[in-house]
Design goal:
Blueprint (H helix, E strand, L loop, with lengths): L19 E4 L1 H14 L4 H18 L2 H12 L7 E6 L4 E6 L3 H14 L4 E4 L5 H10 L4 E8 L5 E8 L4 E2 L17 E8 L11 H14 L1 E4 H12 L9
Parallel strand pairs: 3-4
Antiparallel strand pairs: 1-9, 2-3, 4-8, 5-6, 5-8, 6-7
Helix pairs in contact: 1-2, 1-7, 2-3, 3-7, 4-5
Length: 244
């Protein structure tokens, strides 16, 4: 999981100077959109996913990596493409083929917040992209739990996102009960009342706003090699000119 970032100048000492490039925020989003659309994602779905990629890159430095992983999943399908919703006795199960937390997460979050039943994303244990979408979906006064389940269906890790825009990582799972029979590994989403947490959130709305304003003014640093791969994927969006 990602540690809280400091919100000073965007020096980004995690990347050596020779291995990084400074980009405009809009360029990150536009390239993510183009790459996803060229990979066969619908325009609406690609737009929403590009917003998540941009937020993850600005605040957690892993948005472009997530984009590349998602496109690799899209281009190595394991079965018929599409999303299925199964209503089980205790939980609604949302699956997508090819599997992708970036693309399936928003649907699961919206479903979990609109009903009292929990929602399961089977086999998706890393719920980082899902949590970043939830930051913009949870309403004030509410919260959403994202529980990583082990192979026995027991909570192994938890993230809580609140309607105030706070994200809590590594929430103790000892007191969290799913109310769901063992269902195997995945991420379980449960809407919950807002509650106090003993630890400080790793991301807050105020800190994200500070970083966003700075990035809009001065750009954001990304790994040059990673960006080069994303940029090439985005170029596939362009229609080649016909030669006479």
């Amino acid at each position: 999981m990602t540690d809280m970032l400091t919100h000073t100048l965007e020096d980004d000492t995690a990347l050596p100077p020779g291995n990084r490039i400074r980009l405009a925020v809009r360029e990150v989003r536009e390239t993510a959109f183009r790459a996803l659309y060229a990979a066969g994602v619908s325009a609406g779905e690609a737009g929403g996913a590009a917003d998540i990629v941009t937020a993850m890159q600005l605040h957690a430095r892993n948005g472009i990596d997530t984009l590349l992983t998602t496109i690799a999943e899209l281009e190595s399908p394991t079965g018929p493409a599409g999303v299925t919703l199964t209503r089980g006795p205790d939980v609604d199960i949302v699956e997508r083929s090819p599997q992708s937390a970036l693309l399936t997460g928003p649907l699961a979050v919206d479903l979990a917040l609109s009903q009292s039943r929990p929602v399961l994303l089977p086999r998706i244990v890393d719920h980082d992209a899902v949590a970043w979408y939830a930051l913009h979906a949870v309403t004030p006064g509410a919260a959403l739990r994202l529980l990583a389940l082990d192979d026995d269906g027991q909570p192994a890790d938890a993230t809580v996102v609140t309607g105030a825009g706070d994200m809590y990582r590594d929430v103790p799972v000892a007191a969290l009960t799913t109310g769901v029979r063992a269902i195997g590994a995945g991420t379980l989403l449960q809407a919950a009342p807002l509650a106090a947490h003993p630890s400080r959130p790793v991301h807050t709305a105020a800190e994200r706003e500070t970083r966003y304003r700075h990035a809009v003014s001065y750009g954001v640093f990304v790994d040059a090699a990673t960006w080069s791969r994303a940029y090439e994927l985005g170029r596939r969006f362009l229609v080649p000119e016909a030669h006479s």
